[in-house]
Amino acid sequence: MDLFSRSGLFPNGLFDETRRTLNILVPLFAPSASKWFKQEMSAGFFSSGRPRYRPDPAVAASGSMSQEQRKLEHFTYFRDRLVILKEEYDAHEPQSVMQYWYDYRKPAQWWTFWIAVLVFIFGVTQVIEGAIQCYKAYHPST
Fold this sequence. Notes:
Elements: H1 2-6, H2 14-25, H3 31-42, H4 57-61, H5 79-91, H6 97-102, H7 107-138
């Protein structure tokens, strides 16, 4: 990308913003993203039977961004698309128990859901235990 950024063909700051946007979308500190990135970097040019283009190693070298650097005011070219992505991400609600387990966006909702699940399990256990005790009270075993 550095070669293209110096050519004058693209607007100033476009490639830097592209790297920062990729850093937000594919956080390399996440193990799965890091593994994928290493696989893509080590893959041969024709490994899948067609030409492959490797990711820019400068994306990995850029490291993680601070909260101030991730603010939308610092994005000129991709701001609108990032806003749309954030709105879609925030609008999506978990649909299954496993999705609730891995959804950390709203910690208060996460804890409330799992406490409610535990209360339900304990409640069902208590009802069953009470029914058994009631049965044993009227039908004692000798």
